[in-house]
Amino acid sequence: MHQLMLQIASDYFALTGTGLYFLLLILCLSAIWYYCYGIYAAIQFFSHQTQTDPDFHPPITILKPICGLDIDTYENFASFCQQDYPEYQIIFGVRDEHDPSVQIVKKIIDDFPEIDIRLVISDRTIGTNLKVSNLVNAQAEAKYSLLLLADSDVRVGPDYLRRVIQPMRDPAVGVVTCLYRPQVRGWVAILEAVGISTEYHATVLVARSLEGMNFALGPTIAIRKSTLEAIGGFGAIADYLADDFQLGYLSAQAGYKVVLSDYVIDHAIATESFIDLIDRQTRWNCCTRVSRPWGYLGLIFTHGTAISLLFLIATLGSVFGWVVVGLTWSMRLIMAWVVGVRSLKDPIARKFLWLVPLRDLISFVLWCYSFVGDTFEWRGRRLKLTKGGKLVEITDNLAKVLSS
Fold first, then answer.
1. What is the C-alpha separation between 283 and 298, in angstroms, rounded?
2. For 28-42, how does the pLDDT look when each residue is reduced to its tens digit (9 = 90+)?
3. How many Å from the N-terminal Cα to the C-terminal Cα in the chain?
4. Are residues 370 and 121 in contact, defined by beta-carbon separation less than 8 angstroms?
5. How far apart, in whole angstroms, are the C-alpha atoms of residue 233 and residue 87?
6. Does some domain include residue 306?
């Protein structure tokens, strides 16, 4: 009887090991397919540049929600005042008159008197996401029917407005958004930037190619006022962490086209510590998980770097295990180069391409970690994500309810 039980246990573990072996192999092959498709999606997208119609330049209102200072704040703001565009206005929205960015805006107004620039200071709140409240307060001063939402930490070239607005020639287009190149200082920010250029943007390009654009990216979103009104205005996204995603998603649901522009902007990344990187990445991951739960779960098929190492361990360091690791990592690095270096022309990705495996392993750990929590700190507030992606601020009373 004792020997029989040992034999049954041995057979069970052998069967389980075989099942794990094939599962990990399938995940590795899926990741290799994903990397190949990412290469195709990037080449396909950047091989067709949008033609610019010099006679298409409708007036635009730029809304810039601001809070605190970013890297090179003045230079970022000034780049929007140097546009080769005939008619536009810029409205800065801030909650606190003592915010350090206010003085920068006032200097910008003095330095560019020929540009219609306005500063709106208001603490009126319409939801949990204070950035959206800033947008609503700024929109009250908007003169034009085309709105362009631009984060405070982005910098653009003089052809930015003229190129980004081109898809709006099609009246069916309701939203236009952009990819971005990270601008960094410090090794932690470099680590985050490598992930953005070679991993995050690859998922954007693959999603666009497979299912079309039904979301938007935060640093730049151009939207018609009529589109915004059709989805319920900014009030419809005021309680969402992923306000950018929701603007694109709700617009697509309402029947409007969402277009990814081929213009790439520069985006400052100010991550100063590894803890900041973890907090920021966890916030993004949790946000994606509640916004697109099945899509987020499906990311397991893209984590080839980590899965191939697990496969190597499962095969006890076999020759075949090393072959799978070599093939998986090679395709991952090729995709990273095609997306980050060739397509986005990101100098950080070019110089630090060798950090991709390390960044992937960190991403995998944080992806796993995001399944166990839904609360985080953001700009000094403790927030909780609900199932639908909405934010709830955790006050002392709510914390007592949650702990009871």
1. 18
2. 999 999 999 999 999
3. 50
4. no
5. 24
6. no
CATH code of the domain covering residue 117: 3.90.550.10
Q: Report yes or no: 334 and 35 within 8 Å, Cβ to Cβ.
A: yes
Torsion of CA 249, 251, 255, 259, to 10 degrees: -80
Residues 241-292 have pLDDT tens digits of: 888 899 999 999 999 999 999 999 999 887 778 888 888 888 778 777 777 7
Q: Is residue 252 part of a domain?
A: yes
- In angstroms, the Cα distances linking 86 to 110, 288, 303 are 20, 38, 46
3-state DSSP assignment of residue 194:
helix
Q: Strand pairing partners for 58? A: none
Q: Does an H or E element contain 257, and which?
A: strand 257-269
DSSP 301: G
73's tokens: 């704040």
Residue with tokens 């653009």: 156
Amino acid (one-letter) located at 132 = V
Question: Which positions ≥6 away from 98 have C-beta within 8 Å?
Answer: none
> Does a structural domain hold residue 375?
no
Q: Which helix (H) or strand (E) holds 367?
A: helix 356-369
Q: For residues 217 and 51, which has the higher predicted lDDT (pLDDT)? A: 217
d(CA 368, CA 307): 12
